[in-house]
C-alpha cells in the first residue's frame, strides 16, 4: 500500500490502512520515545497513546506535511504533558525559613474513595460487557490480568501489532459507550 493512499483510506476509518501506518511508523515513534524516556514501558505507552490520538484525529492531517513528523510531534507533546502532570502531582517543595520542607501528598484512598472506586468498577464492567467478545477478552487480558503485549500476543496467537490495534480499537469503542451515558 502506498503511503498517500493509506492516509486517505485511514481518513475513511479503513482498519487495514491503520494497521499499515502503525506497522510502518511504530519503530520510529517508539525509538524516538525510548531515547527521550530511557524506559521501554513508558516509551511503549506513549507510542500507543500517540497512534491512538493520531488515528482519532487523522482527518486533521494535512498532506503538505510529512506524516512521520506529524506523529513525532504528537508523541513529543504527549510526553511533555505527562512530564508536566508528573511534576505537579508527585510533591511540592516549599521554602520556609531558608530550609526545604517537603509536602508529600497523601494519596491513600479514604473509605469513601474505595466505595466510589468499587461503584465505578462495577459500572465499567457492565460497559465492557457491551463490547464484542474479542474486545472484552483483550481488555481483560491487558487491564485486569495485567499481561504485557507480548504475553497477550502469545495467549491469542496473534502478532503484537494486531494486539495493539485491537486494544486501541477496544478502548475507543469503550470510550464511546461510556460517553453515550
TrEMBL record:
One of its GO terms (biological process) is DNA-templated transcription initiation. CDD domains: Sigma70_r4. Residues 25-87 form the RNA polymerase sigma-70 region domain. Residues 125-174 form the RNA polymerase sigma factor 70 region 4 type domain. Pfam families: Sigma70_r2, Sigma70_r4_2. InterPro entries: RNA_pol_sigma-70-like, RNA_pol_sigma-70_dom, RNA_pol_sigma70_r2, RNA_pol_sigma70_r4_t2, RNA_pol_sigma_r2, RNA_pol_sigma_r3/r4-like, WH-like_DNA-bd_sf. This is Sigma-70 family RNA polymerase sigma factor. It comes from Pseudotamlana haliotis. The lineage of its organism: Bacteria, Pseudomonadati, Bacteroidota, Flavobacteriia, Flavobacteriales.
Amino acid at each position: 500500500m502506498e503511503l498517500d493512499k493509506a492516509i486517505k483510506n485511514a481518513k475513511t476509518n479503513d482498519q487495514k490502512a491503520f494497521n499499515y501506518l502503525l506497522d510502518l511508523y511504530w519503530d520510529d515513534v517508539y525509538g524516538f520515545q525510548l531515547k527521550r524516556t530511557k524506559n521501554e514501558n513508558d516509551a511503549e505507552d506513549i507510542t500507543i497513546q500517540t497512534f491512538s490520538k493520531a488515528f482519532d484525529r487523522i482527518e486533521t492531517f494535512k498532506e503538505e506535511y510529512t506524516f512521520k513528523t506529524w506523529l513525532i510531534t504528537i508523541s513529543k507533546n504527549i510526553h511533555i504533558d505527562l512530564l508536566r502532570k508528573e511534576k505537579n502531582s508527585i510533591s511540592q517543595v516549599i521554602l520556609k525559613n531558608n530550609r526545604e520542607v517537603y509536602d508529600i501528598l497523601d494519596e491513600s484512598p479514604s473509605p469513601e474513595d474505595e466505595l466510589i472506586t468499587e461503584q465505578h468498577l462495577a459500572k465499567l464492567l457492565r460497559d465492557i460487557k457491551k463490547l464484542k467478545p474479542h474486545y472484552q477478552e483483550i481488555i481483560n487480558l491487558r487491564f485486569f490480568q495485567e499481561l504485557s503485549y507480548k504475553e497477550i500476543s502469545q495467549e491469542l496467537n496473534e502478532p503484537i501489532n494486531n494486539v495493539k490495534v485491537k486494544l486501541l480499537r477496544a478502548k475507543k469503542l469503550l470510550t464511546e459507550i461510556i460517553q453515550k451515558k
